Structure formats: structure tokens, C-alpha cells
């Protein structure tokens, strides 16, 4: 199992009025039993049983019911039942018989609600009155079994493809056993306005399914079946959606139904924890969207916001773990960093240049750890930052702290790296004095850490987006695809509003088994990248070699002054420009799975040189290829 963030939550019974949480078994990998255990361990209140999971299970319905009971999980929904309404009389008879068999099964499972998807195949008519009459008949059958039907408009329904149409049919059916299932994906994927949810009586909303998704332009069925995400990982405005729902007075389960090719493959407990985090985040944005009106309208569901955290004042340090410490030291020295020596008690050393601090050490043998093993942030209130993270089910990193040492509070990110919160304050954090050699205020060309680029294993990319978005309250920028020799690299930046903290996440292509193919990196902000590059060269620095073709292209695009053009070529400095300003930056060779970058932002340039990224990736690839062959190309 890769990169387990945490394990073993204990169930807490939902408080009255609190959001009841549920998850569809289709979100998780494994057998039905493994899915139930994962949902339980992540602290869900209930699950939706997806029919294929039940059919494939060797356990009897009674045994499944007992197992769920033992785990303290309610079985909230049986799904899906398909292609019922809008059919001719003969098919209707068959469909009613088919439904009765499922209702009997639900009785054995102890499930009270069945999801009915709008007909995608066999409907002959879109007459809403006809559909309503047939649903009423189905309601009568359901009544004999003491169960109810939640009718859901699929975005690709043959005739019924909007929640408003489904709501009209349910109103016409006018049967106490017939209500609605609202699924955020089907509504928002079609661009339908969720505001009219407020016109639906709460007692006819039987179930609610929430899913986020990346904003793709593709056919909606494929989008739904392969690309759904947990709330907070995609582009839908789910806080507004939920606020409409809460205002109706609905207080049933809020369930996650996320069809996703990655989540079907990875550790179900890790996914369940991620899912539970997404619902806590959803509750938070719902509370924000409802505002001080405390729910307003008929609200019965209470939604608590998370502790508010101010954006970090500073990136305090970045910690790198590598087996190639000697090379890393040499590189830092060449870039003008100074050593502060070893920590008093821990086997790490500190290097700094301006307010950029890099803690380096050998890999920790105890647990899986990416090369960028930690990021330290200065925050106004570390205890509150930790409390927010723990409210979001992040696991705290136990820290061995000696008397007199600066307290740092840390949590583990999905890739196994650590995020530490320290108190903001003086220009130099107090923990710096825990290292042997004191600070200094030599003139410096590097100011601070500009951004940190974290390559993510494909299994945990979306989880990392959710983690940084929710725990640190960072905004997610649109993701871009960068072409590398080993595949397309999806890259997404999360940043604080003021840009002090910027984390770029890169998704390692799944075929790229060797993680050295996509190293992690730290970018430092310089006031004069050209002067820094010159100084580094005098100290023996060899930059990443950028091809002449690149500079010909820059020259063609931007018509730079010949003097600057010459310097860029000579020093292997890359260039970008937009309406807001200019960007000059250069790269080091990778050392193992890490490399460094120095950037200079002129004017209001806020990007990362996206056009240069493929050139950089190709140059690094070439460097590795040549190095491994031990001969020049
Ligand atoms: O893709 C489907 O068929 C499907 C089934 C059940 C649902 O609740 C849903 O939203 C989609
Ligand atoms: Mg659904």
C-alpha cells in the first residue's frame, strides 16, 4: 500500500441536526466487505449499496446487514434500479415484477430507499403524466414492502434529464413512497441552475448525492462514469448547491457518489479518508455560503464551518531528504546558500540564503517519504491551523521536541510529506538558533522560497489537491498539461490569495515507474537572477543546459534587447512574459529526485513559465539519459 496518510478513525455518532454522511460503495476499490470496513474506519455514518457489489458478494443479504450493523453503518440506499418509466403496458408489468424482487431483497438487507434512475433506454414516451402514473403504481408496490423510491434524473436520460423535470413527475405522482434523489453531478454537469431546488418540498427529497468534477468538455456519460471527484477536488460550486438544499429543510444523508477510474484502483481506506475530508470541507463551504443567516429558511441541518486560518505569512523552511547530501550541499553553496551546521539534536542541517531556508538530511528509514519531506509555514496561530487540519481528518505528526526547542505542529499530507506550522514573528524564526552556526545578514540575491513543486504519485494527486485546498485554504488554479518525453504531466497550482505560498502539484504519468523521471523541486525568488547565475558560475555551478532552439524561439516571440538575449543564452536562463510582467528563471540538474530553480519576477508576473516547462522537462530527461550512458549525446 502506497503513501498511507493515516488509519483507524473511530466512529462518532452524528449529533442531532449535524450533516449525516454516507458514501456509495462504487467510490471504493475492493470487495463489499472491504468497502464497508473502509467506510467505517473513515467515520462515515452510512453507505449506499451499489447493486453490482452486492451481486458479486459471497455473503447473504442478511450477513451483509449484520456486518453493517456491527460496524455501526446504516445502509442508506440500494442502487440503481434502471429503465422503469415511460414504457408501454407490457414492459411496465415486467418492470413492476422486477422492482418487487428488489424490494424483497431490500427488506432482507434492511434498506429503506431504492434509487431509480430516469429511463435511458426503454422509454417510448416523454409524457410526464404517464411517467407519474407509472411511478405511482411503483409507489403502491413499494408500500407493500415498506420501502420508498428516490427518482433521479440522469444527465443522459432519454426523456427526463433534469432535476426540475424529475421534480414535476414526482409532484404529479403524488405518492408518499415516491420522492427525489438529487445528484450534484447530473445537475451541474449540464449547467442547470440549482436555485430551483429551493422550490422542492423537503419531504419529497429522499436522498442527495454529491460529486465534484473537473470542468471538462466531453460527453456527459463518460465524464460521469470516469472523472467524478470528491467535493473540493474539481470545479463545481458545491457550497452554493448545498446552501439551496439546506434551505429547503432537508436533513437526510449527504452521500458521495464518485465514479472515478483512479479511486477504483487504490487503497479503499485512503480513499475513504479523503472522501470523509471532502464532506467536512463541503459542510464548511456550505456554512460559508449560508452565511450568518444560520441556514435561513427552513434549515434543519446544521453545518459547522472550519476554524478560519489566515494565509501563511511566510514559507519558513523546506525540508529535503536525499541520499545525495554531498551533491546537494555543493549545489546550495554554489547558489550562495550558507550552512548553519547541524541541529542540536536532530540529524538535519540548515542552509539559508536571504529568508530562504532549506533543511536537509538523509532519508528517514521509518516511513515512506518523498524528497520534499516537509514544508514549514509561519502562521498567525499554529494551534488553530492544526485544529483545522485535524477537523479535516489530517493526522498529526508526532514530534520529538526537547526542552527549549521551538514548538512546531505538523500534519501529514497524502503523499507522506509533512506540513508544519510555526508562529510568525521576528524576521528569523527562533528555531534557527537550534542549529550550530548563527544567522547572518550578508547581502543576498535570493529573497525567499517562491514556490514548491511536488510531484505526486497518480494515486494521490486529487487527494493532494483536496488536502492543500481544504487544510491550508489555498485556491486552486486551472490545471494544465505539460508535454514531457515520458508523457503528459498534469500540473496544478494551489496558492494563497497573496501568493506567499504557492504549491505546484505535478501528476507523475502512470507509465513512468521511475519517480526520478519527475523530480520534485523548490524555486527560490531572486531579485537579480542574472547576477545570481553569474556568481554561481564563478563558484563552479553548471546550470541545466537549455537548447539553442529554445533561445531562437524566445527571440522570435519577444524581440528582446540583444544584450539580454545574449545573457540568457550564455547563462541558460529561461524567459517568459505576459501582460503583467516578465519572468526570468534557471534550473539546476536533478540530484536524485530533486532539483532547484531560481526565479525572478519582474512587474506583476504571476505565472510559472508554462511554455518553458516542456523544454525544461526534455532537458532534464536528456541530462539523465546522457548521465546514465556515461557518454555525451
Ligand atoms: O452512471 C450511472 O448509470 C448512474 C447510476 C446511478 C447514479 O446515481 C448515477 O448518478 C449514475
Ligand atoms: Mg447519482
From TrEMBL:
The keyword Oxidoreductase applies. One of its GO terms (molecular function) is metal ion binding. Residues 448-589 form the VOC domain. Gene3D superfamilies: 2,3-Dihydroxybiphenyl 1,2-Dioxygenase, domain 1, Divalent-metal-dependent TIM barrel enzymes. It is an enzyme of class 4 (lyase). A divalent metal cation binds at residues 152, 183, 209, 257. Its cofactor is a divalent metal cation. One of its GO terms (biological process) is 3,4-dihydroxybenzoate biosynthetic process. Mg(2+) binds at residues 451, 521, 597. Its EC number is 4.2.1.118. Keywords: Carbohydrate metabolism, Dioxygenase, Lyase, Metal-binding, Oxidoreductase, Pyruvate. InterPro entries: DSD, Glyas_Bleomycin-R_OHBP_Dase, Glyas_Fos-R_dOase_dom, IolE/XylAMocC-like, VOC_core, Xyl_isomerase-like_sf, Xyl_isomerase-like_TIM-brl. It catalyses: 3-dehydroshikimate = 3,4-dihydroxybenzoate + H2O. It comes from the Bacteria. It holds the Pfam family AP_endonuc_2. Pathway: Aromatic compound metabolism; 3,4-dihydroxybenzoate biosynthesis. SUPFAM superfamilies: Glyoxalase/Bleomycin resistance protein/Dihydroxybiphenyl dioxygenase, Xylose isomerase-like. Belongs to the bacterial two-domain DSD family. Catalyzes the conversion of 3-dehydroshikimate to protocatechuate (3,4-dihydroxybenzoate), a common intermediate of quinate and shikimate degradation pathways. This is 3-dehydroshikimate dehydratase. It comes from Agromyces ramosus. The lineage of its organism: Bacteria, Bacillati, Actinomycetota, Actinomycetes, Micrococcales.
Amino acid at each position: 500500500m502506497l503513501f498511507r496518510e493515516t488509519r483507524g478513525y473511530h466512529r462518532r455518532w452524528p449529533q442531532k441536526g449535524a450533516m449525516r454522511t454516507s458514501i456509495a460503495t462504487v467510490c471504493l476499490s475492493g470487495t463489499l466487505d472491504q468497502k464497508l470496513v473502509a467506510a467505517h474506519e473513515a467515520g462515515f455514518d452510512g453507505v449506499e449499496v451499489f447493486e453490482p457489489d452486492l451481486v458479486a458478494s459471497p455473503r447473504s443479504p442478511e450477513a451483509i446487514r449484520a456486518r453493517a450493523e456491527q460496524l455501526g453503518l446504516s445502509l442508506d440506499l440500494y442502487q440503481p434500479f434502471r429503465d422503469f418509466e415511460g414504457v408501454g403496458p407490457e414492459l411496465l408489468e415486467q418492470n413492476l415484477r422486477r422492482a418487487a424482487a428488489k424490494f424483497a431483497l431490500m427488506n432482507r438487507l434492511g434498506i429503506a430507499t431504492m434509487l431509480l434512475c430516469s429511463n435511458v433506454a426503454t422509454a417510448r414516451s416523454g409524457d410526464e403524466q404517464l411517467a407519474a402514473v407509472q411511478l405511482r403504481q411503483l409507489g403502491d408496490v413499494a408500500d407493500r414492502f415498506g420501502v420508498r423510491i428516490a427518482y433521479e434524473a440522469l444527465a443522459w436520460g432519454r426523456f427526463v434529464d433534469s432535476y426540475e423535470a424529475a421534480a414535476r413527475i414526482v409532484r404529479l405522482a403524488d405518492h408518499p413512497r415516491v420522492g427525489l434523489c438529487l445528484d450534484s453531478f447530473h445537475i451541474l454537469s449540464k449547467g442547470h441552475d440549482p436555485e430551483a431546488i429551493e422550490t422542492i418540498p423537503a419531504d419529497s427529497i429522499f436522498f442527495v448525492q454529491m460529486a465534484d468534477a473537473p470542468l471538462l468538455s466531453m460527453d456527459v456519460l463518460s465524464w460521469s462514469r470516469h472523472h467524478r471527484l470528491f467535493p473540493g477536488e474539481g470545479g463545481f460550486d458545491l457550497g452554493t448547491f448545498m446552501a439551496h438544499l439546506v434551505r429547503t429543510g432537508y436533513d437526510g444523508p449527504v452521500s458521495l457518489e464518485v465514479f472515478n477510474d483512479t479511486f477504483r484502483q487504490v487503497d479503499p481506506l485512503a480513499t475513504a479518508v479523503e472522501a470523509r475530508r471532502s464532506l467536512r470541507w463541503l459542510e464548511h463551504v456550505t456554512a460559508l455560503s449560508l452565511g450568518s443567516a444560520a441556514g435561513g429558511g427552513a434549515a434543519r441541518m446544521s453545518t459547522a464551518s472550519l476554524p478560519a486560518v489566515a494565509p501563511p505569512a511566510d514559507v519558513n523552511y523546506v525540508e529535503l531528504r536525499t541520499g545525495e547530501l554531498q551533491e546537494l550541499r555543493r549545489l546550495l553553496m554554489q547558489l550562495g546558500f550558507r550552512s548553519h551546521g547541524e541541529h542540536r539534536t536532530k540529524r538535519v542541517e540548515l542552509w539559508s540564503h536571504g529568508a530562504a531556508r532549506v533543511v536537509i538530511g538523509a532519508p528517514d528509514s521509518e516511513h515512506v517519504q518523498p524528497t520534499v519531506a516537509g514544508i514549514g509555514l509561519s502562521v498567525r496561530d499554529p494551534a488553530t491551523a492544526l485544529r483545522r487540519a485535524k477537523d479535516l481528518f489530517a493526522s498529526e505528526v508526532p514530534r520529538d521536541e526537547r526542552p527549549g526547542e521551538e514548538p512546531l505542529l505538523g500534519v501529514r499530507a497524502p503523499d507522506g510529506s509533512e506540513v508544519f506550522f510555526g508562529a510568525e514573528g521576528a524576521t528569523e524564526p527562533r528555531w534557527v538558533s537550534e542549529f550550530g552556526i548563527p544567522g547572518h545578514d550578508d547581502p543576498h540575491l535570493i529573497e525567499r522560497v517562491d514556490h514548491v513543486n511536488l510531484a505526486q504519485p497518480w494515486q494521490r494527486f486529487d487527494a493532494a489537491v483536496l488536502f492543500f485546498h481544504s487544510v491550508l485554504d489555498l485556491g486552486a488554479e486551472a490545471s494544465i498539461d505539460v508535454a514531457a518525453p515520458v508523457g503528459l504531466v498534469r500540473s496544478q497550482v494551489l496558492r494563497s490569495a497573496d501568493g506567499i505560498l504557492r504549491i505546484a502539484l505535478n501528476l507523475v504519468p502512470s507509465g513512468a515507474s521511475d519517480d526520478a523521471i519527475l523530480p520534485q523541486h523548490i524555486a527560490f525568488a531572486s531579485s537579480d537572477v542574472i547576477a545570481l547565475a553569474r556568481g554561481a558560475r564563478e563558484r563552479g555551478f553548471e546550470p541545466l543546459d537549455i537548447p539553442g532552439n529554445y533561445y531562437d524561439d524566445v527571440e522570435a516571440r519577444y524581440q528582446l534587447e540583444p544584450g539580454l538575449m545574449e545573457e540568457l543564452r550564455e547563462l541558460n536562463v529561461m524567459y517568459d512574459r505576459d501582460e503583467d510582467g516578465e519572468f526570468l528563471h534557471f534550473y539546476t540538474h536533478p540530484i536524485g529526485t530533486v532539483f532547484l530553480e531560481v526565479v525572478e519576477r519582474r512587474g506583476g508576473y504571476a505565472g510559472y513559465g508554462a511554455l518553458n516547462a516542456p523544454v525544461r522537462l526534455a532537458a532534464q530527461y536528456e541530462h539523465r539519459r546522457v548521465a546514465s550512458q556515461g557518454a555525451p549525446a
